[in-house]
Amino acid sequence: MSDPHQPRWEHDTETQLTSRQRLDRTARHLLPSVFTALVIIFFSAPLTVPGAAELLPAIVINTIFFWSVWRPSGMPSLAVFLLGLFMDLVGFTPLGVSAFILLLVHGIGSYARFGLMRMNFLVVWCLFGLVGAAAAALQWALACLFRLHLLDPAPAFFEALLCIGVYPLLSATFSWFLHILDEKDTP
Amino acid sequence: MVPVSIQVRQALSKLVLPVLLLMSVGIIIAGQADRPLADKARMRVADVLAPLWSLLSRTQTDSERFVHGIQEARNLAEENHRLSAENANLRRWYEVAVSLARENDTLKTELHWVPEPTPAFVTGRVVADSGGIYARAVLLVAGTTSGVQVGNIALASSGLAGRVTEVGAHAARILLITDIASRLPVELESSHAAAIMVGDNSPLPRLLYYSQDTRPIEGERVVTSDQAGAFPSGIPIGSVHYLHPGQPVVQPFARLDRLTMLRVFDFGQSEIEPPEAPGHVPLTRPHRALTLPFKTLLGPGQEG
Fold first, then answer.
1. Within 10 Å of residue B207's Cβ, how many Cβ atoms?
2. B25-74 pLDDT, tens per residue?
3. What percentage of chain A carries pLDDT values higher than 90?
4. Helices A121-147 & A97-111, crossing angle to 10 degrees?
């Protein structure tokens, strides 16, 4: 006669294992979004970081583009939308503008991802530069539209340059991170 | 989870992005239409995040203080060295000062120096003066009950402010040096040349009647002169500044546009009376009876 507790015990361990795996996978999927949210909170804090106002959208656009191209499961559209809305609520841009721009960047990244993944790093960088510049220009244009007043384009230029300049650094960091995740996955 | 076919799921996932884009456009429009709601949402988020932000900024200030402390500690030895050198230097100067004070005392004793009386002063709060016959005058809450008299001198913390012109039991009106009615004998400090400082209701009173061979120099200090017997000499007034060539003005040290407290000094200047000299006609003072100048020339019994 077999022990009646045996099957239940086996069943328990199995669910525990799967729930842990599920937790692990959820954490992995949420990580880019959580990182972006923390970046938004950090840069909207009243710190004396020079150029924080321009650096924040640059980093966020970089992060969203990178994950949209290389690991879309880590950056779903809904997360992008919520992050954009959060950025608008925390910052001073008109409500919904950042969400719109970030969704566009995410859409371009995930639409062109199969083409981009096969390209050289420098070519991807150049293409991303175009996307970043377009995002900065769009943000400037929308700000002008809502104020009904032609604003100084210098901060938008600065933002675009920061966006392009920060890409290699963030890209290297995220690639290294992806590499570690994949190594953990294989065994 | 609702079981859906793969085709439906793919179609749904393709729809998510356009729907979200449309939603963000809708939020933009709604935010523009109802700004108070957007601001309220913003404030709600800021309220939630405020502790985090304060934690971040406090961490930053703490780390800055820490780094600053380390830098200071690195400079400590150097600073200590500098301070001890300065201390030795100051001790030397202290010895010099003590010996000079002693020498000064000895010399004064030798010369039978009459010590200058220490002036009595009262301090009062300035209240704005809208009335009165002067354009630049202030009212001070200190009057005859506090010992203020007409002709006393009002000093701000950094220089001369004006003179007491009218005095009541609890208030005194002070004519500022910038008023058009104010004319003071002054002395240019480096050349000891006399001049008259004339107010013109502007913040910078003009310098007039200086001798042509000793012109005021830009930046030179202007102090009071005891020429007319109204002021003791050497009270700082201001510094010379040229608005145009040949038009020197005085920049007063006292900030006359925002006076809060004034000290009114009684230098006892009115008690200085020149000794009578034969043939000298003394200036009449309103509060003193006119004395006949030539009474000593008259014979005894002939006067009155």
1. 23
2. 998 888 888 888 888 888 888 888 888 888 888 888 899 999 999 998 88
3. 29
4. 150
CA distance B267 to B234: 13
- B106-160: pLDDT as tens digits: 998 888 887 777 778 899 898 876 556 778 888 888 888 888 888 889 999 888 9
Q: What was the pLDDT predicted at A187?
A: 54
CB contact under 8 A, A95 and B38: yes
A5-44 vs A77-90: helix crossing angle, rounded to 10: 40
pLDDT above 60 for B210: yes
Whether B60 and A48 lie within 8 Å, measured CB to CB? yes
Answer for the pair B215, B235: CB distance below 8 angstroms, yes or no. no
Amino acid at B261: M
Task: Give all domains of chain B, ordered by start, each with its CATH number.
Answer: 12-83 (no CATH), 122-269 (2.40.10.340)
| Interchain CB distance below 8 Å, B26 and A96 | yes
β-bridge mates for residue B125, sequence order: B261
Answer whether A135's CB lies under 8 Å from A163's CB.
yes
Closest partner residue to B20 (CB to CB) among A41, A45, A103 is A103
ipTM exceeding the 0.90 mark: no
Q: What CA–CA distance (Å, rounded) separates A75 from A53? A: 23
CB B26 within 8 A of CB A94: no
The residues on B that touch A, with CB distances below 8 Å, are 16-17, 20-21, 23-32, 38, 41-42, 45-46, 49, 52-53, 56-57, 60
- B49 and A44 within 8 Å at the Cβ level: the answer is yes
Q: Which of B10, B13, B19, B20 is the mutation pick for testing A, counting most A CBs within 10 A?
A: B20
Alpha-carbon distance of A110 to A133, in angstroms, equals: 18
- Among the partner residues A44, A47, A97, nearest to B60 by beta-carbon distance: A47
Residue A154's H or E segment, with its range, is helix A154-185
